[in-house]
Design goal:
Shape of chain B: globular
Largest interface: A-B, 24 and 34 residues
Distance between the termini of chain B: 31 Å
Number of helices of chain A: 0
Radius of gyration of chain A: 13 Å
Strand order of the largest sheet of chain A: 1-9-8-3-4
Low-confidence stretches of chain B: 98-102
Largest sheet of chain B: 7 strands, mixed
Strand content of chain B: over 45%
Strand content of chain A: 35-45%
Mean pLDDT of chain A: 91
Structural class of chain A: mainly beta
Oligomer: heterodimer
Radius of gyration of chain B: 14 Å
Low-confidence stretches of chain A: none
Helix content of chain A: under 10%
């Protein structure tokens, strides 16, 4: 599975968009990009995933560059409850197993 | 609420003891995953079961074992406990339809069991 690189921490003002970057320069053609978050010792929560097209759901948007070597998770209007560690995970999901290999993630602190 | 339940929420025990953590997956999910989160190691995949069979193994110690029962609930058994086994243990489930490629196969995590070994 490809490795990912994320900044260790970021700040964002409440109500503003939070843009969380992730580098995955060794991603292969059949690997997906998944984003999860963990709010203070709770179980991780799935946010969004994509292969090569940009994706949007009720929680966030995922922008993947054309060469797929990096992506950005966008929380359009961050709230205090979005303060969490955000994990970008790359892997070939599906088939018999889709274990998640977590890195160190980005601690997003949303400031009032 | 993810639909995944884990018991107990907290467990305090002594070194050398054995404990069992229990997980009930979301209704209909066939795969169960176990993860360990400690302060120094972060979130680590331990083991996966699919419909009662072991599917993938990660950094699981030989002192640890797991199984998935016919009703799809799973148990993680930790024996000869050491101080370093103190951690949060999470269970997750997914639909995972076996060998057929499935996208959007996200995992749903339970609230975790906090194990403290004294």
């Amino acid at each position: 599975d490809a490795k990912t690189t994320q900044p260790p921490s970021m700040d964002c003002a409440e109500g503003r968009a939070a843009n969380l970057p992730c580098n995955h320069s060794t991603i292969s053609g059949n690997e997906y990009v998944y984003w999860y978050r963990q709010i203070h010792s709770q179980g991780p929560q799935y946010i969004i995933h994509g292969l090569k097209n940009n994706e949007t759901n009720e929680m966030a948007s995922l922008i993947i560059t054309e060469d797929r070597k990096s992506s950005t998770l966008i929380l359009p209007h961050a709230t205090l409850r979005d303060t969490a560690v955000y994990y970008c995970i790359v892997g070939r999901f599906g088939g018999a197993t889709n274990k998640l290999i977590f890195g160190t993630g980005t601690l997003l602190a949303v400031q009032p | 609420d993810s639909g995944v339940t884990q018991t107990p929420k907290h467990l305090i025990t002594a070194t050398g003891q054995r404990v069992t953590l229990r997980c009930s997956p979301r209704s209909g999910d066939l795969s169960v995953y176990w993860y360990q989160q400690s302060l120094d190691q972060g979130l680590q995949f331990l083991i996966q079961y699919y419909n009662g069979e072991e599917r993938a193994k990660g950094n699981i110690l030989e002192r640890f074992s797991a199984q998935q029962f016919p009703d799809l609930h799973s148990e993680l058994n930790l024996s000869s406990l050491e101080l370093g086994d103190s951690a949060l243990y999470f269970c997750a489930s997914s639909a995972n339809q076996g060998v057929r490629e499935v996208t959007g196969n996200e995992q749903f995590f339970g609230p975790g069991t906090r194990l403290t070994v004294l």
